Amino acid sequence: MKSRLPRGIQDTYLVTAILVVLLAVYWWLQPKAFGVWPIAGLMAAIAPLALAAAGEAVVVINRGFDLSLAGVISIVNVIAVTLPFDGISGALLLLVVSMAVGAAVGYINGVLVTYLKLQSLAATLAVMIILGGIAFSILEAPGGSVNDWVVDNLTGNIFMFPQALLVLLLVWCGWVRLRRSAFGINLYAIGADERAAQLSGINVRRTRIYAYIVAGVFYSFAGIMLSAQTGTGSPIAGDPLLLMSFAAVVLGGVSLFGGTGSIFSAMVGAAILVVLIKVLFVIGISSFYTAIVQGVVIIVVVAVNSMMGRRKKEE
């Protein structure tokens, strides 16, 4: 009997189980952290990394890498604190401007990779450096404040439901629709075998450019959520999310060779990393060892996923 669960969820049994266990441990150690408002705070902490990882996963599935996410998030963050955005109209304007920035950067990345034939790592690294310089020119030092409406309505609750979680669900639902479209099918086909996809009539260049654009829009969402969480700006706001997003993608079981994985699993991987940090903090483990524990967890999960994958192939 075939499972009725979406394929993206089927592929995340292990990481989802790990997240559930971590949440159970966190609840046992810190019961007060599971009140209505603390949960909203937890989701607000998870959202920026989850959205950044989701964007990175889109590019990785298409057999590419994108380092520009740090620059996009930083640009969105400094825009959020330097332009005169007030109230809900200002929030909507911030959303439009941020998405435009993310999409433009994604388009540039796609052109550099597809038409100029630059390696994705080199091209997106150069774009990240340029964006970092622009961010510093807009905001020379950390400071400023984010629109109160953005902070209040993206980090709190709506009818006792975390608004940050609602944002993640909306983004994921949007991706599910894209995944079932011709773009989504082509995206995975190119990641699995670019030559075969090209021979079958798929426009590889266009699909790859679209992948970078979608990723850029996801990064812009991550920048908005990070701005809402911190309430302030920094020209290097996105830097800490760069390596963490790759870790979340790998932890979620997205193959770095392309063609397999899901956005959902990358988001779960991000949630694991954030909750793990909180569990280690409650236990009293020094922050110096947090990265070591995270690395060990990633290695173990990837190893187990690989073994499970080999067993399925043998069967």
What would you say this structure looks like, in words?
The structure is a single chain. With 315 residues, this protein is mainly alpha-helical. The protein has a single domain, classed as ABC transporter involved in vitamin B12 uptake, BtuC, CATH 1.10.3470. The chain has helices spanning 7-10, 13-29, 36-61, 69-82, 87-114, 120-138, 148-155, 163-179, 182-192, 194-199, 204-230, 239-251, 263-283, 287-314; strands at residues 157-158, 161-162. It has a two-stranded antiparallel sheet with strand order 1-2. Strand 1 and strand 2 (161-162) form a beta hairpin. Residues 1-10 have low confidence and may be disordered.
CATH architecture: Orthogonal Bundle
Shape: globular
Mean pLDDT: 89
Helix-and-strand structural type: mainly alpha
Distance between the termini: 16 Å
Percent strand equals: under 5%
Low-confidence stretches: 1-10
Number of helices: 14
**Sequence of strands across the biggest β-sheet:** 1-2
Number of domains: 1
Oligomeric state: single chain
Could you say what the CATH topology is called?
A: ABC transporter involved in vitamin B12 uptake, BtuC
CATH top level is Mainly Alpha
Helical residue percent band: over 70%
Which radius of gyration do the C-alpha atoms yield?
19 Å
Query: Total strand count, please?
Result: 2
Major β-sheet profile: 2 strands, antiparallel
Can you write the helix and strand succession as a string? Answer: HHHHHHHEEHHHHHHH
